[in-house]
Amino acid sequence: TGYTTYDDGLANTASTMSAITYIDGDAGVLRYRGYPIEQLAKESTFLETAYLVIYGELPTAAELATWEDRIRRKTMVDERMREFFKMFPRRSHPMPVLASGLMMLSTYSFDSVDYTPEAIEKATERLIAKVPTLAAYGYKNSRGEAMLYPDNSLSYIENFLRMSFAYPTEPYEFHDEITRALDVLLILHADHEQNCSTSTVRLIGSSGANIYASVAGGVNALSGPLHGGANQAVVEMLSAIKESGISVKEYVQQVKDKKAGIKLMGFGHRIYKNYDPRAAIIKEHADKVMSLKAGRRDLLKLAQELEHAALEDDYFTERKLYPNVDFYSGLIYEAMGFPKEMFTVLFAIGRLPGWIAQWRELVTNPKRKIGRPRQIYIGEGERDYVPLGDR
Ligand code: CMC
Description:
The protein is mainly α. It is built from 17 helices and three strands. It has helices at residues 37-43, 46-55, 61-72, 79-85, 94-107, 117-143, 156-165, 176-189, 196-206, 211-222, 230-244, 248-256, 277-292, 297-311, 314-318, 326-336, 343-363; strands spanning 21-24, 29-32, 35-36. Strands 1-2-3 form a three-stranded antiparallel beta sheet. Helix 3 packs across helix 6 and helix 9 crosses helix 17. It is globular. It binds carboxymethyl coenzyme *A. Carboxymethyl coenzyme *A is lined by residues 9, 195, 226-228, 230, 255, 263-270, 319, 321, 324-326. Belongs to the citrate synthase family. Pathway: Carbohydrate metabolism; tricarboxylic acid cycle; isocitrate from oxaloacetate: step 1/2. Keywords: Transferase, Tricarboxylic acid cycle.
């Protein structure tokens, strides 16, 4: 019935109406609920931005205090869940562990398919509060280290840093610059309209599946190297270039020759045909964090040389390929002390408010329809079944 249009990669299909995030890819503009990303990165905190993305307005001082308090009081996970993390093999990649943790969290929620405002509110707060705990436990498991309880006297970011890096036997020392840099990085990731993982969250949610199942799907979609996994892939690419001893020019040439599908990871974007505004902000923080801790300055230098070479090359300029959010973020995470397997988990913590806001926007729309794309069939025409002995 009707007609079907073919849109490869859904590049020209608007799948929803949304009031959350505005992007002008040609001008390099990104706004959450109307507020420019540059202002939020400078003035806001991640928890405040999460509130803005989810509820649509900046909170008053009283609303913010209540929100922070409600989140703080939900950071613990059931004791059995801590045991659950120990079931994963040592050195498990923390991304599938996070996705599994979210599904386990759903089994502790008896209202997870309930669309009452109270149930949605509770699930929202539980997710924002507990995902950093799950992320830190996935990390601690991969190292065989003790999983710490949250310390609710700390801020959201400090609490996560402590759960990731502290040991039960030693005090943990915070660096304000690192705490703030992580806060800013999470703000920059908070939403990005209908990207692959967010579309996945919406598609799962459109069937009536609960928010935990939808967000776990988002984590899995994010894990791929063309999406959130690019931040890990960038550092792997830089290390491989360094180890192989080839020059930046030679690597750029290999990318241009499209040999073995090599890409310049951290470059290009479906929507930004100009500098990704998030990459510009991250770049400013890279030097600051790296001067504090022993980050891979050699890799930062290499990244800067690669960027310079690409921005001067017709192949990249003709295709409008510029650094994206993932180009420098991995190097900062690395300088903070995170191993590369954690980079995409950090992206997931940042993107969580966006996934939640988009799921809420979907399920509170009374005209919501199940997502169900069409296809163009290119298989065999009708044919008769051939008995096994005759094949
Ligand atoms: N290196 C080399 N060539 C590239 C790259 C790249 N990073 N990105 C795109 N191209 C080329 C591509 O080969 C194609 O060339 P041609 O016209 O000769 O066939 C042209 O540019 C258009 O690319 P496309 O693949 O049609 O563009 P797309 O919108 O489908 O893909 C993308 C967007 C982000 C998947 C892609 O640019 C890419 O693979 N980049 C590297 C991975 C990456 O950094 N991903 C993170 C994206 S931003 C944050 C996030 O979503 O997580």
